Amino acid sequence: MIRIGFALLALLTGIQLAHAQTVTVQRADILDYGIYAVDQQPTGRNADGVLQSEVRDIKLAVKTQAVNAVLGTHFGFEYTIVGAPEGAKVSLRSIVIYPPGGIHPPGKAPVPQYAVNVNRVIGGQSYLHWYAFDDPWELVPGTWTFQLWYGDHKIAEQSFLVVLP
Fold first, then answer.
1. Which whole-number Å values give the CA distances from 119 to 47, 82, 92, 93, in the listed order?
2. In sequence order, what DSSP letters do the residues of 85-112 get, joined into one string?
3. Which CATH number fits domain 22-163: 2.60.40.2390, 3.30.70.1670, 2.60.40.10, 1.10.287.70?
4. What is the pLDDT of residues 86-131, one digit of tens each?
5. How far apart are the C-alpha atoms of 71 and 134, rounded to whole Å?
6. Which of 15-29, 32-46, 110-124 is predicted with the least confidence, judged by mean pLDDT?
7. Domain boundary assignment for the chain
8. pTM of the shown model
9. Using CA atoms, how far apart are residues 23 and 88, in angstroms rounded to an integer?
């Protein structure tokens, strides 16, 4: 009876180990980039005063790395996560690095970058890493760099040159 108990325990442990796969993220593939038309739903502002929003109905309007600093402009890149197992949830760090000197929210110190953790799924679904010019103090010309990080590994990067019209 004890042997049957040990055999059953070993079998159950083996089944659990087979289902507990190691999650690996190799990279994020950039599918498209540029200026996007979206339906933006504001959700509030972060501590730096940057408007937080959810977007829907995402459509690439212009494939470009040059972006005019105009209120209401949404820009960024679409991507998928490449890794294993397919469908596994992962946490990424989504960063926008502003041009030197940063952005200048009223009454606050200059902000050099915006960073947020996002939960994503490995596999076929695409996501948008984006920024929108919602306030005049965000209209800063120069190179804006969008990055995705998984742990301490940068898995994607795309830069845009923001220019005054």
1. 21, 14, 6, 9
2. STT-EEEEEEEEEPSTT-B--TTS--B-
3. 2.60.40.2390
4. 999 999 999 999 999 999 999 999 999 999 999 999 997 899 999 9
5. 6
6. 15-29
7. 22-163
8. 0.83
9. 7
